[in-house]
Specification:
Layout: H1 2-30, E1 40-41, E2 52-59, E3 68-80, E4 83-94, E5 97-106, E6 112-115, H2 120-128, E7 150-151, E8 158-159, E9 167-178, E10 181-191, E11 195-200, E12 209-213, E13 223-233, H3 247-253, E14 263-268, E15 275-281, E16 290-298, E17 310-317, E18 326-329, H4 330-333, E19 339-341, E20 345-351, E21 358-368, E22 381-388, H5 411-421, H6 427-439, H7 462-472, H8 478-490
Antiparallel strand pairs: 1-7, 2-3, 2-13, 3-4, 4-5, 5-6, 8-9, 9-10, 10-11, 11-12, 12-13, 14-15, 15-16, 16-20, 17-18, 17-19, 17-21, 21-22
Helix pairs in contact: 5-6, 5-7, 7-8
C-alpha cells in the first residue's frame, strides 16, 4: 500500500505542476485585460466639425471582404427631434467605381442613422467595422448601465455574447504605424478561434487599424473585417469632395441607362454539378456602360437551397469558338485569381468593353469549399449567356471603350495630364496633348466645336482635373479620362482644332 502511495504522490505533484504551468501559460497569453494607462475611450471621442478621414477597409458581408476605400468629412451638426447628430459627406472608391453621398451618425454612438440610399451597403460596413466598438464604449450617458466611456485599465469592456462570449479586453499599449502616421495606441483584443485586434487611440474618434476574423469551429477562419487609416485632417472648412463626380453621374451624362429591365434565367452547369440562377440588366447593354448582375448558386438536389463557399468567375469568351476561349476575366480585372461567395449569392457591376453585336458571357463554377483551398476539379462547370448589345443611336451621347484605338499613349501626354491637374501647366499645353491623340487616331472623341477657342480655366470642373491626375497615375482607365475630355468639348469649355 505504501508503494502505491509513494508512486501516486509524485504523479500528483507532476500533474499539479503541469496544470500550474498550463494555467500560467494561458494566463500569459489570454489574461484579463487592463493596461497601465490612465486614459479612457469611446467611439466618436473627440469627433468635431471639419474632421476628415480616409480609410482602406473590407467587410466579410460585402463581397467576402473585397477591399474598398471610404473617405468622409464631418460637415455639420444636425438635430433630428431631440437627437443630436453629425452629418458626414462621403465618397467611396470601390474598384473603378466612385460612390458619393452623405451619412448621418449619432453623437452618443457614431452609428449610422440615415443617409443616401446608394451608400446603404457601405453604411453597413462602416457600422460593423469602424463603429463596431460603439456597442461597448459610448459617450457619457448618465446612469445607463454598461454605457459610457471605457477605461484602458479595465480588465474587460464587455462580452461578445451575454453568456459564454469572449471578453473584449485592453491588452497592451503599442505604437502602431499606418499610412496616416504613427500613433501611440492601446490594443483591444478578443478571441473567436483566433485573436482579433483593434488599435484605438485616446481622444481619437475611430480606431486606426483592425484585423478581425470570422469565428469558425475548424479550418482557417476567413477575414471578418480589416481596415487602416490612410489619411486624417482637421479643420477642413469646405467640402473636399466638390470636384469629384460619382460613377453613376458620369454614366448618366454619358447616356448610360439608369432605369432598366432585367433578363432572368436559370441553367444547370454543363457538368450538372450546380444550378446557376442569374439576372442582368439592362436587357441590351451599351458598350462603355455597365451590366448589373445578380447570381445565385443553388444545389442540384434541392433547388430552394443555396450552395455555400462557391469559387467562381464571370468571364467573357470568344463567341465564335466552340471551346471556352476566355477573352476577359472579371476576377483578374479586380486583381483576384477567382471570385468567392460564402452564402452562394453575388451582386456586382461589370463594364461592357465589347463592341460587336453581342457578347458571350460564361459564369464558371470552380467548386466549393473554404476560400483558401483549391476546390475539387470534379465540381468544375459553367453556363453560357448570350447578351445582345445595344447599337448607339446617338454617338454624341454615349461613350464606348473602343474610343481608345491604340493603347500606346506617349508618356509625355500622361505627364501633361498630371501637371495640368496640379496647375503646373496651362490649359493650352494640356489641350495640345489631346489634339495630338486625336490627330494620330489614338483616341476618337465626338467633337462639338466651340465658339471660343480659348480654354476657360475658371469653369472647368474639378472632377475633370482630378480625372486627368488619376489617369496620369494609372488609377483610372483610359475610358474614364476620355469621358472628361468629351465632357469639356461637348459643353464648349475647350476647343479642339484638327
Amino acid at each position: 500500500m505504501r508503494k502505491k502511495i509513494l508512486i501516486i504522490l509524485p504523479l500528483l505533484l507532476l500533474s499539479l505542476l503541469l496544470s500550474s504551468y498550463y494555467i500560467s501559460f494561458v494566463s500569459a497569453q489570454y489574461s484579463p485585460g487592463g493596461v497601465q494607462n490612465i486614459g479612457t475611450w469611446y467611439a466618436g471621442e473627440g469627433l468635431k466639425k471639419g474632421n476628415y478621414f480616409h480609410y482602406s477597409m473590407c467587410y466579410f458581408e460585402y463581397k467576402n471582404c473585397s477591399q474598398f476605400e471610404m473617405k468622409f468629412w464631418v460637415s455639420e451638426e444636425i438635430k433630428d427631434g431631440s437627437e443630436e447628430k453629425w452629418k458626414l459627406e462621403v465618397v467611396v472608391l470601390d474598384g473603378n467605381k466612385i460612390i458619393k453621398g452623405d451619412m448621418e451618425i449619432g453623437k452618443i454612438a457614431p452609428e449610422p442613422t440615415g443617409g443616401s440610399d446608394n451608400l446603404s451597403i457601405y453604411r453597413d460596413a462602416y457600422k460593423s467595422t469602424l463603429a463596431w466598438l460603439s456597442a461597448y464604449a459610448t459617450a457619457p450617458t448618465g446612469d445607463l448601465l454598461g454605457k459610457g466611456p471605457k477605461s484602458f485599465s479595465q480588465p474587460s469592456w464587455g462580452k461578445i455574447a451575454s453568456i459564454g462570449g469572449d471578453q473584449i479586453t485592453p491588452t497592451e499599449s503599442q505604437t502602431v504605424s499606418v499610412p496616416a502616421g504613427q500613433f501611440d495606441s492601446v490594443l483591444i483584443t478578443w478571441k473567436s478561434g483566433t485573436i482579433n485586434k483593434i488599435w484605438v487611440v485616446d481622444d481619437f474618434p475611430f480606431p486606426v487599424k483592425a484585423d478581425a476574423f470570422v469565428q469558425v469551429s475548424q479550418g482557417i477562419p476567413p477575414q471578418l473585417y480589416k481596415f487602416e487609416l490612410l489619411e486624417y485632417k482637421e479643420n477642413i472648412t469646405s467640402n473636399p469632395f466638390v470636384g469629384i463626380m460619382s460613377t453613376s453621374d458620369q454614366n448618366s451624362m454619358s447616356g448610360c441607362p439608369q432605369d432598366y429591365e432585367f433578363v432572368k434565367d436559370r441553367k444547370n452547369t454543363n457538368t450538372f454539378t450546380m444550378i446557376v440562377e442569374y439576372k442582368y440588366g439592362p436587357k441590351h447593354p451599351i458598350p462603355g456602360c455597365e451590366i448589373e448582375w445578380f447570381v445565385d448558386f443553388k444545389r442540384l438536389v434541392n433547388e430552394s437551397e443555396h450552395e455555400s463557399e462557391v469559387h467562381f468567375d464571370i468571364l467573357v469568351v470568344d463567341p465564335n469558338s466552340e471551346k471556352l476561349v476566355v477573352t476577359r476575366s472579371i476576377a483578374q480585372e479586380e486583381g483576384r485569381q477567382k471570385l468567392f461567395t460564402t452564402l452562394g449569392q453575388d451582386h456586382r457591376f461589370t463594364t461592357v468593353k465589347e463592341t460587336d453585336e453581342y457578347a458571350k458571357y460564361a459564369i464558371i463554377v470552380y467548386g466549393t469549399g473554404p476560400e483558401q483551398i483549391v476546390p475539387p476539379p470534379e465540381e468544375l462547370g459553367w453556363i453560357l449567356i448570350d447578351v445582345q448589345l445595344q447599337n448607339k443611336s446617338n454617338p454624341d451621347q454615349t461613350i464606348n471603350t473602343n474610343q481608345i484605338v491604340n493603347s500606346d499613349i506617349p508618356d509625355w501626354v500622361r505627364n501633361n495630364a498630371g501637371w495640368w491637374s496640379e496647375g503646373k501647366i496651362q490649359d493650352q499645353d494640356f489641350i495640345s496633348g489631346i489634339q495630338y491623340l486625336i490627330k494620330e487616331n489614338i483616341i476618337q472623341i465626338p467633337i462639338t466645336k466651340s465658339k471660343d477657342h480659348n480654354a476657360t480655366n475658371d469653369v472647368i470642373p474639378d472632377w475633370v482635373r482630378n480625372n486627368a491626375g488619376w489617369w496620369s497615375e494609372g488609377k483610372i482607365q483610359d475610358q474614364d479620362f476620355i469621358f472628361g475630355i468629351q465632357y469639356l468639348i461637348q459643353n464648349r469649355l475647350i476647343s479642339i482644332s484638327y
